[in-house]
Structures are given as structure tokens and as C-alpha cells.
Amino acid sequence: MTSLSIQPTDGPVGAFVSGIDLADAPDPATAAALRTALGKHGVLFFRDQTLTPEAHIAFAQTLAPIVINRFFTPVDGYPNIAEVRKEADQKTNIGGAWHADHSYDQIPAMGSILVAKELPPEGGDTLFAGMYAAHDSLPADIRDRIAGLRALHSSRHVFGADADHRKDPDVDTGDRYHNARAATQDVWHPMVIRHPLSGRKSLYVNPDFTVQIDGLPQAESDALLALLFEHAKRPEHIYRFEWEPGSIALWDNRATWHMALNDYHGHRRLMHRITLAGVGLEG
Ligand code: OGA
Ligand code: MN
């Protein structure tokens, strides 16, 4: 057993984990403690780690089975690691809008483990927004209104053959995405879920993938989603994580949103991501 230390950030979401070397896969008791901490804090940050792709995979497998993202180009030789890359001559980054990974899946991914491989000299931080706080701080009438409602999540407009970015000549996604034909599934999820690890209520809609509220005319649905998105991304719900060489972020997609800042044009940024399998979501 390692001497794990978990220190909440000074923000509304996230904690720093120390006293652990992830080059060796955590033992079951440590993995259980990390899962519990993840459900509580929404995102865990690790510093000064050296993680080979093999160790990244081994770490992931102690937490949950790996799910392969069907749209991201994988790291060469590692089909279960997605490459999150922006080249010096590219303008568009991956994950540059607020989202929760895989919410468009029937059984959305529990979380993701992102490992810094090459960082720009400055910038390239990631923002995290806490969806427990976003839910709990909603005005009571809105909270009551969305309790029991479902919303539709889709990947079509992001990864599909007619995705928005394919129509914009200024968007240079290069060879990052593939398999557009897989972007045909849509799914209804409760707008407020009971978090599978913590039991807390969490707001489960996100700007990138949530497109419609069940039973409302489109205009009303759009207005209510816009209100929820504006509320959830208020500064008091956000923590800004600054990457350093050796940093790792492990986030829970059911308790947080994230967004990659795109403020380092002219420099390369390369990350490796493994996605962790989740469970069906209930309100
Ligand atoms: C992701 C993602 C954010 C970042 O890998 O899912 O959104 O900061 N990345 O690279
Ligand atoms: Mn993401």
C-alpha cells in the first residue's frame, strides 16, 4: 500500500494526488481509493510521473476496462490509446469546446486519463467545470423543471460525415479523426443523474453533444439548454489546470466537463488519452 495523499484544489473541483508512482500499476486497494476520490472530486491530477504507453494501459486497467474512442486516430502501435495532438502549423485543437467525453454513447465512458507527452512553452491549459456544483447552485425552479427530463446526445455534428468542422475551410483537423460512419448513434440520458460512484446529483448535459430536451419544442429546448450551459460554465464552477512535463489528469465524465485552451499557436502539443468504460446512467 502506498501512502496516498489527496489534496483538493483551491477551486470548486479536482484534487492533487501525491505519494504514488504510476509507473507501477496501483494495487487493488489503491485503485479503489482512487476511484472513490475521483467520484468525490471529479478530476484527479498527478505530477512528476513518467508513464510509458504500457504503464498508461496498466494503470487504466486497474480502474476500469478500456473503451476505444472510435473517432480519434490512435497512437501508432497502441490501438487503445487516442492521440490528442495539435501541430505547430495547425490552428484547431481537439476538445476546444466544453464537453464530457463519450456522452453520445449508450453507456458513456466513466472517465479519461490524459498524459502530457509534449507541451508548448506556455499555454495549453485545460479547464474543468464541476457538474455537482453546477446542479446544486441552479435556481430551485430550474432544478425542479429538469428533474426527470431526458436529453438527446449525439456525435453526428462533431464526428459525422456532415460534421460542422468539415464545412469550415478554416478548420484544419488533418488526420485526427476517422470513422465518420460510426457517428450515427444518438442516445437519451437523464438531464440530472445520480453519480454512480458518489451518489450525488450531477448535471448531465454538455454544450458539445447535447442537442435536444425530450418533449419540448426545439426553441424552448434550445433556450433551456443555453441557460444551463451558461450557468454551468460560470467561473465559480471552474478549475484551470496548468500542465507540466510529467502531469496526468484523470477525470470523471459524469461529474465534470472539460475544455482545452487553444492559446499556443506555432507550437506542438501532444497528449495520450485512454478512455475508461462506464455504466448505464440513471436519474
Ligand atoms: C480529451 C480532451 C483536452 C486537452 O482528450 O478528451 O478533451 O486539454 N483533451 O487536451
Ligand atoms: Mn475531451
Short description:
By secondary structure, this protein is α+β, with helices and mostly antiparallel strands.
Q: Which architecture would the CATH scheme give at its second level?
A: 4-Layer Sandwich
Q: Choose one word for the global shape.
A: globular
Radius of gyration, in Å, reads 18 Å
* Biggest sheet character: 9 strands, mixed
Helix-strand string: EEHEHEEEEEHHEHEEEEHEEEE
Total tally of structural domains = 1
Give unreliable regions as ranges: none
Q: How many strand elements?
A: 17
The helix content, as a percent range, equals 10-25%
CATH topology: Double-stranded beta-helix
Beta-strand portion reads 25-35%
Structure annotation, total helices: 6
Give the CATH class.
Answer: Alpha Beta
Structural class: alpha+beta
Q: What is the terminal-to-terminal distance?
A: 36 Å
CATH homologous superfamily placement: Clavaminate synthase-like
What ligands does this structure carry?
A: N-oxalylglycine, manganese (II) ion
Global mean pLDDT = 93
Can you tell me about this structure?
The protein is of the alpha+beta class and 283 residues long. It has a single domain, classed as Double-stranded beta-helix (4-Layer Sandwich), CATH 3.60.130. The chain is 20% helix and 28% strand. Strands 1, 2, 3, 4, 5, 6, 7, 15 and 17 form a nine-stranded mixed beta sheet that branches. A three-stranded antiparallel beta sheet has the order 14-8-16. A three-stranded antiparallel beta sheet has the order 10-9-13. Helix 1 links the parallel strand 2 and strand 3. The longest helix has 15 residues, at 218-232. The chain is globular, with a radius of gyration of 18 Å. Bound molecules: N-oxalylglycine and manganese (II) ion. N-oxalylglycine (OGA) binds at residues 84, 94-95, 101, 112, 114, 126, 258, 260, 271, 273.
